[in-house]
Design a protein that fits this description.
Layout (H helix, E strand, L loop, with lengths): L7 H9 L8 E2 H7 L6 H9 L11 E2 L16 H8 L4 E2 L2 E2 L2 H4 L3 H4 L1
Parallel strand pairs: 1-2
Antiparallel strand pairs: 3-4
Helix pairs in contact: 1-3, 2-3
């Protein structure tokens, strides 16, 4: 499928699927990459609906590294567990050393 034929959510999923193992990005970074800088909240809505779409939604956090989408994962701490299984440190629902694990789609894709 050509990128221009994808709807916004599908385009979000295509970017999220590119996030490398052990790295995270933000809703805003994905929105900016897609040319919709003010649509970070829409990226969040897309992530909420990404279950069963093989999208690593656990790798998308808010701009401060907070696990704001964790309530959309089964179990209380699944998002954190998935991140920690990739070597990402999380304390009090916040990614530690965000600058070291942050993946910037504008620079990487």
């Amino acid at each position: 499928m050509k990128p221009e034929s994808l709807n916004f959510y599908e385009r979000v999923y295509e970017v999220a699927k590119q996030i490398p193992y052990g790295r995270v990005t933000s809703y805003g970074a994905i929105a900016t990459y897609l040319g919709a800088a003010k649509s970070a909240r829409m990226v969040g809505y897309a992530m909420n609906g990404s279950v069963a779409k093989n999208v690593p939604a656990h790798r998308v956090v808010n701009r401060k590294g907070l696990l704001t989408g964790k309530q959309h994962f089964e179990g209380t701490n699944l998002m954190q567990q998935l991140l920690e299984s990739e070597g990402i440190f999380v304390v009090d629902n916040q990614i530690q050393n965000l600058d070291k694990v942050f993946w910037e789609p504008l620079k990487e894709l």
